[in-house]
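Lecture notes, continued. The same structure-token format from the folding unit now serves as the input rather than the output. Read the line below as a description of shape only.
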């Protein structure tokens, strides 16, 4: 990462779990309860990672580029806008999270993680 120009070093291109607490006040009570739960977890917890996966899809992080307007605004603002702009209900948004949890669980059942190989 040190080979990047200084101006780009602050940019994130994917939603990461440390951003979760900043999304708490954007929706209703059901959403706040989910965010409160996730905010207590380590960033590597499968539930936090599943939420990140859901947000990466919701905010279209995979299409973000360093020189794009979205990247220059930053993940904090982009993720907040994605949550606020979601046209569905809180329940529908939480269903997306539940689907991301299932997807992550399926992946973890099939894939052997590199650390497990060494053990």
């Amino acid at each position: 990462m040190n080979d990047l120009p200084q101006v780009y070093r602050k940019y994130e291109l994917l939603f990461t779990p440390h951003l979760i607490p900043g999304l708490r006040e954007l929706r209703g009570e059901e959403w706040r309860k989910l965010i409160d739960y996730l905010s207590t977890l380590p960033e590597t917890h499968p539930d936090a990672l599943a939420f990140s996966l859901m947000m990466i899809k919701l905010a279209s992080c995979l299409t973000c580029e360093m020189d794009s307007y979205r990247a220059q605004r930053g993940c904090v603002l982009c993720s907040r806008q994605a949550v606020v702009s979601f046209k569905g209900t809180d329940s529908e948004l939480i269903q997306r999270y539940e689907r991301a949890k299932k997807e992550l669980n399926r992946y973890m059942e099939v894939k052997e993680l590199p650390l497990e190989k060494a053990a």
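Point for the exam: The chain has one domain: 6-109.
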